[in-house]
Structure formats: structure tokens, C-alpha cells
Amino acid sequence: MLRAGGRRLLAPGLRRLGLGTGASGEAGPAAAAAGVRAYHERVVDHYNNPRNVGSFDKDDPNVGTGLVGAPACGDVMKLQIRVDENSGKIVDACFKTFGCGSAIASSSVATEWVKGKPMDEVLTIKNT
């Protein structure tokens, strides 16, 4: 995925995977008949309209940064959280992801999940 000024410039494989194929982003019957696996509408929505894209000041003592990459497919994700030191709750979250549509969508969903939650609750989230 290549973006400039908020516009998608390069994402040729996503339409073949069922992302953005119909009026609301769902894959049609032809895609299902062809054996193309379509993404859930929520994944398509977070890909087409990612939430919380950006970066926080790395020098802010209340900001934590995680960076992860997948060498097999080339995805790189940076997720950041801002924690209120008094309450221990995550008050804001953002991400920058360079990778496929599902990586962008999952980063967007993750930032939505963690906002407003205490750290001890967020630490129980599992990838299952």
C-alpha cells in the first residue's frame, strides 16, 4: 500500500481479494463463485477508512511505541499509545502501517480496541 496525502496510490491486489469490490466494499456472488475469499465488511471498512493514523511525539514520557515487522510478507507496523499516568488508562492510540490491507485494517481495529481501557485489561488481549 502506497499513500500520499491520504490517497491510495498503489494497491492492485486488494480488489482481487474482495476489498472494495462492491458498493459497500463486499465481494459479489461472482467473487464467491470464483473461490475468492472476501474480507468481513468491518475489515473492509477499516481498510477504506482507517482510524487513528499518525504518530505521537516519541519524547513524550506517557507514550509507548511498539514496532513489529513480518519478513515473510514485508509488513511493518508501528503502534503507539498514550497512557494517563494517574488512571493507567490508554487515552489515545495511533498507528502507521506499511503493508497489505489486512495489516492496515487490523492496526486500525487495534487502536480502537485499546482506547479508554486500563493497561491491565489491554495486556489480556490475545491473538486467537
TrEMBL record:
Domain NIF system FeS cluster assembly NifU N-terminal: 38-127
GO biological processes: iron-sulfur cluster assembly
GO MF term list: iron ion binding; iron-sulfur cluster binding
SUPFAM superfamilies: SufE/NifU
InterPro entries, alphabetized: NIF_FeS_clus_asmbl_NifU_N
Signal peptide: none
Organism domain of life: Eukaryota
Alphabetized Pfam families for the sequence: NifU_N
PANTHER family given in the database record: IRON-SULFUR CLUSTER ASSEMBLY ENZYME NIFU HOMOLOG (PTHR10093)
Name of the protein in question: NIF system FeS cluster assembly NifU N-terminal domain-containing protein
